[in-house]
Each structure stands twice: as C-alpha cells, then as structure tokens.
Amino acid sequence: MQEISNIKFHSFSVREAFARLDSTETGLSEEKSNERIDTFGFNEITETKKDPAWKKLLGQFANLLIMILIIAAIISALMGDIIEAISIVVIVLLAGVLGFVQEYQAQKAIESLKKMAAHKALVLRNGVEHLIEARLLAPGDVVVLKMGDTIPADARLIEAANLTLEEAVLTGESQGVVKNAGMTFPENCAVGDCLNMVYAGTAVSNGRGKALICATGSHTEFGKIAEMLKKEPEKKTPLQKNLDTLGSRIGIFALVVAVMMSAAGILKGYELVKMFIWGVALAVAVIPEALPAVVTISLALGVRRMVKRRALVRKLPAVETLGAVNIICSDKTGTLTEDQMTVRRIYVDNKIVSVAGAGYEPVGELKYDGLVYDNNNVALAQLIQIGSLCNDSHLIKKDKWVITGDPTEGALVVLAAKVGLNSDAQRGHILRIAEDPFTSEKKRMTTYHSINKETFAYSKGAGEVMLGCSTQIMTAQGIIAITDETRMHLQNVIRQFAEESLRIIGFAYKKLESFTKAQPEEGMILVGFVGMIDPPRAEVFAAIRRCESAGIRPVMITGDHKITAVAIAREIGILKDGSAYSGEEIEQMNDETFNRVVNEANVFARISPAHKYRIVEALMAQGNIVAMTGDGVNDAPTLKKANIGIAMGITGTDVSKEASDMILTDDNFASIVSAVEEGRTIFENIRKYLVYLLSGNTGTVIGIIIAMVAGLPLPLTAVQILFINFVMDGLVAIALGVEAPEPGIMDKKPRAVKEGILNTSALSEIFLAGVWIALLTTTVYVYALHTGASDLRAGTMFFTALVFARLVNGFACRSLHQSVFIMHPFSNLALVTSVLVTIIMVMGMIHLPILQVAFGLTSLVNFDWLLVTLLPLTLLVFTEAVKLIKRRITRGK
User: Fold this and answer.
1) Residue of 141, 149, 331, 661 with catalytic role
2) In the chain, where are the structural domains located?
3) Are 645 and 659 in contact (CB under 8 A)?
C-alpha cells in the first residue's frame, strides 16, 4: 500500500477512502492489521526521550556557583583541609539532591494527571466487533463510535447518526461540532472545518457512528503537534539568568580579591604558603556557599504552598518567573468561565423569565419582574418537557453534578431539574418512536413520541429556525396564531437575547395525525425560547481586579465567536474601552499593524493555534513576561514558547501538560493570579536573603582585609567561615525565604524585566550593612588584642561578634522597605527558631572541648560575652536609620 501520511482523506468519498486504504466496511482481518502495525507502527505517540535519573541529578550541578564551590573543595583537599573539603561537598550535594527530588516529585504528580488517552477502542475485524487496546489500531481498521468515546486515531467517517464531537482540545472550538459522513471537502480545508473526519484525542458528545482509520500515532494531527514540541528549545527563566550572572560576578570578584590580597601580602614579605591560605579564606568568605541550597529550598517550599493554591509547578525556577509576569493570556472556556452551559433567560407566555444559578448544580429559582415565577404555567411546562425529551444528555451526581452528552442539551436537563422534573424518569415513561437528528443544514433536532396513544413531534433548534417553521404560539390562555405583529415581537426577543450574547434555542411541537418520519417543516406550534451561556467563574471578577491593581494585563484568547468573547470580557472586566479582533482580521494585518494591535487589544476571538503562537511571540518580542494558558494539543507549542506555559489539570491533554511550566489543578484563572502573588513573594524573599547573605559576606571580607592590611593575625579560619556562610546563614536565609508577603505586594506593578535580582537599593544596603559589620567586628578584634588577649581568644571574639551581627542582620532583612519594629517579632517563627538554634550551636562550639579543637575556638569570659552580644545590636539601629532615609526620599519623589 502506498504512503498514506500525506493523503487528504477528507477530499475523498467513502468509497474512494476504502479503496485507498485497501479496506472494506467489515474492517481488516487480524492478520492484515498486524502487518500494517509492522509497517506503520503502534498507534501511540513517540514520547520525547526522557533523561535518566542520574542525568537529571547531574544537571542540578550545572551552574556556576556550584562549579566554584567544587573548585574550592578541590583546593581545600589539596591543601590538606579535609574537613573544609568535606563541608563544601556536603553543601553541593544537599543543593543538588533537593532540586532533583522536587522535580522528580512534580513529574510523578504530572503522570498521575494523565487521563486523556483513548485506552480502548471498539473495532470491526471481519465484520465482528472486538474491544481492543487503542494502540493496536492500524490504517484501514473500522471503529465504532458512541457517546462518551475518545477518538483513538484520525479517521474518515463512513456513518454518522446525530454524531457530535467536542474538538476544543485540537481546534479550540468550544461548541460541539456536528459531523456528516456524506460530505467531501477541498484538500486545503482546515482541520476544524473537515466535518467528515474525526481526530485523535477529541471526544464524542452525542450520537454514534463508524469511521475508517487513516492515520495513527505520530501521523495524527495530535501526533504532528507533539513532534513540533521537540523542536522548541528549552528557555531559561529570569531567575536562572540572574543567578548565572550573579554567580559569575561573585566568582570573578572572589578570584580578584584573593589574588590581589595574596600578592600584596607576598610583596610585604609574608610567606607564600600563608598567603595562599589567606587567599583561599578570602575566596571562601566572598562566595555565599548556602545560596544554591537556599534558593532550591525556598523555591521548593514555594511549590508546596502553590499546590495548596491549586497550582502544580513542574520546574522550580518557574515559581519566581511568575512574579515577573505582566501579561496573562487566558483561554475563555473553562478558565474564565465555568465550561458549563447555563440557561439564564426563558421567553414563554409573552414574558422573559430570569433563571438563577450557574453551572450544573440543579439549584436556582425562576423569577419574573423580581417575583418567583409560577412553575406550573402550562407553556413553561411544555417548553421544559420538549427540552427534556428532545434530548440525549444526562445529569448525574458524582462528587459533584456532571453532564454526560452535549453541553447545550445538558443545560436543558439542568433547567428541568431546577423546576423539579427528572428528565431521565420522564424519558422512561414517554416512549420515543424515532428521531430526526440535528444537522448543520437544518439547525434543529426532532424526536417523535407516543403520549396517551397520540403522536407528537417535539423539536428544538436555532431560535430563528424554530420561529420560521411555526404558525402558532402557545400561551397560558391557549394556542393563538402568529400574526405579523407577533412575529416582529418574537424577532425582537431573539435580538434582545443575542445582544446579551446568549445562545438562543427555540422549542416547538406538533400533533401528528399519523406517524411518518418526515420532518414537519411547517405548521408547528412555537412554545418559547431559552437563552443560555457559559457563565463566568464567580472568582474571576475579583481576580481581574487584582490583576489591574498589580499592573498585570489580562488578555482573552479564544476560539469562540467574537460576540460571545466580547460579552464575557465586558462582564468580567477584561474589556472596557479597547477593541476585540478576530483571527480573520489578524490574517489581514501587516506586521506593523499586528504588533500595535497585540500591544493594545485585550480580546482575540476565533483564534487558531497559529494565531495564538504569533500573538505570544509578538508580546514576548516587545519585552513582556507572558503567561499563557492552554488545554488542547493545539496549545502545546504556544505553552512551550511562553515565559510561563500553564496547562489545565482537569481538561488538559497529556501533550499540553508536558509542554507546560505549571499545571492548574482546578483550571481556574483565579489560581493563576494567586500563583503570581506567590511568585512575587518568593522573588522578594530571594532578594531579602541575598541582601542578608552578601552583606554578611561583605562584612567578613572587609574585616579580614583590614586585619591583613594592619598586619594582624588572620581572625577567621576557612572552617569557621564555612560554618557561618552555610550552616548559620543557611538556616537564617531559609527562614527569610518563608517570610509572609508584605502588605500591598499585589498593588505594585511587576518589576522591570531588565531589573536584576539585586537592584541599586539592594546593593547599597549590602555595602552599608557590610561596612558596619566589618567595623564592629574589627573593633572587637583590635580591642581584644590590645587588652592582652591571645590570638585564639581574640579570633573567637571576632567570630562570635560576627555571628551575632549577622543574626541581627537577619531580623533587619525581614523587610527591605518597612521598619522591622512594626512587624510582629514572632510572625516568622522559622527565623526565631533558626536564631536560637544557631546561638546554641555557637555556645557548644565555644565551650565544648571537642568542638573547640575542630573549629579553632576557645572559651570566653563574662565581659567578652557582653561586648560580642551588645555591640552587634547597633547594626539594627543603623539599618533602620538607612531604611527611614530611603522611605523619606521615596515619598519626596
């Protein structure tokens, strides 16, 4: 059989399709199917080759700060400082293992979310139905389709009875697509318009049919998109770029300082070996050894907090990127809206009745003119009966109320339940004789029923269509003729519903003298109309307001019709004064116009996957940090392209989840905004502990340099520096990483994209606090030496004063803006605990003989303790004065 991957089966008749695939209506034999599997492969998408666990673990060490620490460990080992070398190795391993474990757990959580694959398929083999694994299908197989099935492969329809598919995962079209096996289409027909085809990953929402498999595995439309993803390069987050830059600068600075000071010492006549030890000590003092582990732990803790807010982060650095997002591009259906069609208006008996409630919960009153409407109205009862019987959907109570079948029909079943009518029970005792299914040409569906030995045709369809085939209308007073005046009034009702962007369904019936399955095209009795819509989620309104106050621009990108998109966007506050554009309008724009429109418009409707990708690409090219939501296979390339790709955990496909940085477990837009708040908090906390770590290191380095220039003994050993830089600083920095968000964090604009993690304000605080730490520790050291203390005791006092100064600095860094004196002292219990634990450890190191030897320390007397604990408190007064001056300067501006 010739190559079939490029054949356009939608352009062939059923007979031609069978001929091309060398198959028949009875399907393939088992032997022939196996032969084709050998030729075309199994019906499964080849997954991107995943790195083995050992490779992922090694990948955690591929950053510059880690490399510098490894080099420091090697140098320490060569010099015989085994304890220091082991300490550094433990630091490196801890940071790497933490990152590996978190990403491994996220991957396992994602695998547990995989629900979209069609695992079984009903196939004809020599005319006999067999239920087999979907992966065993081959081109030429004939599959049987029924309501609720997921399509296992791309196929040409050969039969379709009222067959409706949900194709949103592939095309973005939120409404059900009615299929027709008898039609053919041009070769260049778009996937969403090929009504004689069904595609892998989409689902049957109504009806039944049979289809001829023409593409499997990676040759399906689903598979082609998966292949595209492999070509999209991995992106680095702003945090990764910031830390890479910071690591390289710290590394270069450490090297320069170490070499310069060593050279200066040698020129002064110091021994070469001694100067090399000093150089290593300086390098160790400059590098914030705890940083990789602290960043990893901080991000991991953020991930755990975000899980509680319904967001699963696949890669740790993405947490911080969320904090920089200034544009959220969101789909409409299911993210901004409930994805549950709901009847909002009923026109019956010359009245427009409002229906309360949202979604599939069968709760909500019917009201007219503010008063509860009479559910026993004869016209209302007839409308609800037609909506229940001319219907194939079911309302089921599981953990929550769900609909099986077409969402539009489901809304009618829910409406019936709101007035106390069980649609399934009614169908059970009113016999359906036959049905005339909905088609895109007729735009209506009719069912035939036997009621008290009389036959009735019940029909529902587009409002204009049902009005057009009706000559009478039902009222509470009886059935009256539709006059020209009445028809005009009814057309105005339809227009009014349309202006509210409601989907309008009309209902009519006719008593038949004798049953014939011939559609009664005229002379029907109109009962009324319903207007339904997929309502906005209740939480979205507040979430949009939070976006506005946070300087984040929400953009709706949907496959739905423009009029519906605009109505929902206006209702929830996304669209106020701006314009909305359709995919067709975008196609006509040159690049200059397109870039301007993308920068201004907040609503894009009837958008294809290619349009989505182009919009996100343009927004990113303009310097924006873009978060993009998606659930379908068609969204995957755009999810991978965006700075933050957000997949849907409930409705999302496996492909979209694999392409994303984050998965929403509740598919809710409000959860994105909560995740952004968490991202901002994490970024601010990373900045806080960077200021804390680097100001402490700066103070240590300046203190060592002062001692060296003054010709004094080296006040610290490398082991002591490592204890401070990793053990103590690590505990305090992690505690700062869980600091609660500061008030008003979502009332600020997103930080500038080019703004580094250490801005001018942070750098000034690092320098000023570092100088103060150096001055107070050096004062203690010089005082000790000048009052006759031994080098060991003076060094112990320097070490202890430095520890207490950096602990005080930890409290000062709880906020880089507001005074810590107005913050509750015990609101961050982790910080209080880390300080107490550090003090206990230091007391043990100073007074326990075994630890004294290991760390090169000795016991202190009473006045020594007074000096090394009280003098560091001046740092808090100094840093608070600096913050006060900055606040006054900011207010002045």
Assistant:
1) 331
2) 9-47+115-229, 279-309+681-892, 318-337+538-673, 342-533
3) yes
Hunting for tokens 């595995």 — which residue is that? 217
Among the listed ranges 331-335, 464-468, 516-520, 625-629, which one has the minimum average pLDDT value?
516-520
CA distance 451 to 429: 9
User: What CA dihedral angle connects 778, 784, 785 and 788, to 10 degrees?
Assistant: 170
pLDDT in tens, 231-283: 555 556 666 677 777 777 777 877 787 788 778 777 777 666 667 666 766 67
Kindly report each contact of residues 478-482 with a partner whose C-beta sits within 8 Å and lies 24 or more positions away, as own/partner: 479/525, 482/526
Q: In the numeric block, which tokens belong to residue 813?
A: 């860094």
Beta bridge partner(s), residue 512? 455
Q: What pLDDT is recorded for position 686?
A: 86
Question: What number does CATH give the domain 279-309+681-892?
Answer: 1.20.1110.10
CA dihedral 324, 329, 331, 336 (to 10 degrees): 60
The answer for residues whose C-beta is within 8 angstroms of residue 419's C-beta and 6 or more apart is 366, 375, 380, 384
Measured distance CA(557)–CA(602) in Å, rounded? 8
pLDDT of residue 734: 85
pLDDT tens digits, residue range 829-866?
Answer: 999 999 999 999 999 999 999 989 878 899 998 899 99
Topology adopted by domain 342-533: Calcium-transporting ATPase, cytoplasmic domain N (3.40.1110)
Is there a catalytic annotation at residue 560? no
Residue range 318-337+538-673, CATH number: 3.40.50.1000
Report the pLDDT value the prediction gives residue 689, as an integer from 0 to 100: 87
Nearest one of 578, 611, 723, 654 to 171, comparing CA atoms: 611
pLDDT of 155 reads 97
> pTM for the whole thing?
0.70
Higher-pLDDT residue of 768 and 825 is: 768
The angle, 0 to 180 degrees and rounded to 10, between the axes of the packed helices 64-78 and 238-267 is 30
Q: At what angle do helices 272-286 and 669-709 cross, to 10 degrees?
A: 160
Kindly tell me if the per-residue pLDDT of 110 is higher than 50: no
pLDDT-based confidence at residue 118 (cuts at 50, 70, 90):
very low
- Comparing CA positions, the residue from 701, 760, 754, 702 lying closest to residue 725 is 701
Contact 344, 535 (CB under 8 A): yes
Residue 801 has pLDDT above 60, yes or no: yes
DSSP category for residue 176: -
| Average pLDDT along the chain | 85
Query: Which distant-in-sequence residues (6+ apart) come within 8 Å of 736 by Cβ?
Result: 685, 688, 689, 692, 810, 813, 814, 828, 831
Q: Which segment, 367-376, 630-639, 846-855, is predicted with the most confidence on average?
A: 846-855
pLDDT (tens digit per residue) in 516-561: 766 566 799 999 999 999 889 889 999 999 999 999 999 999 888 8
318-337+538-673 and 342-533 share one fold: no
> For residues 206 and 292, what is the distance between their CA atoms, to the nearest angstrom?
54
**450 pairs with which residues across the strands?**
431, 455
Looking at 3.40.50.10170, 1.10.10.10, 2.70.150.10, 3.20.20.100, the CATH number of the domain 9-47+115-229 comes to: 2.70.150.10
Instruction: Find out whether 651 and 334 touch, Cβ atoms under 8 Å.
Output: yes
Euclidean distance between CA atoms 98 and 300, whole angstroms: 8
774's CB contacts (< 8 A; 6+ apart) are 698, 699, 700, 701, 702, 703, 706
Alpha helix locations (H) across 137-196? Answer: 168-171
Q: Tell me the C-alpha distance between 115 and 515, whole Å.
A: 45
